[in-house]
Amino acid sequence: PGRVKSDLRVNELYVLGAGDLPDWVQRWRPTPEKADLLLVVAHPDDEFLFMGGIVPYYAGELGRHVLVAFITESSEQRRSELLDGLWAAGLREYPLHGVFYDRFSTKLSDAYKKLGEKKTRAYMVRLFRQYRPDVIVTHDANGEYGHAVHKLCADVVRRAAKDAADPKKDKPSAKQFGVWDAPKVYLHLHAENAVRMDWRRPLPRFGGRSALEMAAVGFSYHLSQQQTRYRVEDGGPYDNAVFGLIHTRVGADVSRDDLFEHLPQAASFAEETASAGDGG
Predict the structure, then answer these.
(1) How many CA within 13 A on the CB side of residue 111?
(2) Closest of 280, 40, 67 to residue 160, by C-alpha
(3) For residue 269, what pLDDT band results from cuts at 50, 70 and 90?
(4) Which of 42, 175, 245, 274 qualifies as a cystine partner to 149, CB 3.0-4.6 A?
């Protein structure tokens, strides 16, 4: 009585002898307590197809605290693929796996209805307040190729960026973490205040390979998705090098080639916002 049946599934099993661990063995660090950059994507592989070299450049090359947050749940296979891809691209801090069930549609209203508008907004507000990212990046408002969950990511990030700074919104997370007004928020392909990243520069951390090349390497680990028509490209209709600034506390971008332009040390924002959130 009271026994619960469950399945245990093993994707891969390796037995290693004594000595130093090989470089390919993944030794993940905990999810960062304070994120320099929060990358919000709908599905595994979106972090490379549509966000291009963000992970290899900012996490792998520069060592920024990059937190990749997936919105939708994934199968065991796709979770394994996303971890392999992120590790190959230089990420070392464990990502956040999705909690919402994926439903394909082209209408934003359908996505909100199926995933839950209040739930997704509250979830995103909590993420912003808990991890206090200096830069937030997410999907195109039109969903790139029209996927409604991509559209939801863009819409909920835009709305949650305002809500997270308001102590009257989602009071439990405001009480637990304080409020957070993210310094910069970007949408993929947004035309206004656009930044164009150069993902083709050689990166010493990767032996001279570029962020674009490493994004393609990361995508190659998504074996279940290799038959799709999408490829890692810094050009064309889904150009993964273009991002538009939709919210800023530090002024408009001038050089327009760095998502962290104008940002001082992250601690100044953390201290400032923590003070502003006292008693909220």
Answers:
(1) 24
(2) 40
(3) very low
(4) 42
User: DSSP code of 192?
Assistant: T
Give the Cα separation of 129 and 142 in Å (integer). Answer: 26
The helix or strand, by DSSP H or E, that contains position 246, with its residue range, turns out to be: strand 242-248
Distances (CA, A) of 61 to 15, 219, 231, 269, 270: 31, 18, 22, 23, 24
User: CA-CA distance, 48 to 237, in Å (whole number)?
Assistant: 15
Contact 45, 222 (CB under 8 A): yes
Q: What share of the chain is helix, strand, coil (3-state, %, to 5)?
A: 35, 15, 50
Number of residues that make up the chain: 280
Query: What pLDDT was estimated at residue 4?
Result: 63
Q: Is the pLDDT of residue 121 over 70?
A: yes
H-assigned helices in the chain: 46-49, 54, 76-88, 108-115, 117-131, 148-163, 171-177, 211-220, 266-277
pLDDT tens digits, 89-103: 999 999 999 999 998
**pLDDT band, very low/low/confident/very high, at 77 (cuts 50, 70, 90):** very high
Burial profile 223-251: b = 16 or more Cβ within 10 angstroms, e = fewer? eebeeeebebbbeeebbbbbbbbbbbbee
pLDDT at 14: 87
Q: How many CB atoms lie within 10 A of CB 253?
A: 21
Specify the pLDDT at position 10.
75
Q: Cα(280)–Cα(224) distance, rounded to whole angstroms?
A: 45
Six-digit token pair at 184?
């910069």
Q: Rounded CA gap, 277 and 280, in Å?
A: 5
Q: What strands lie across the sheet with 194-196, from one edge to the other? A: 66-70, 37-41, 135-138, 184-188, 242-248, 194-196
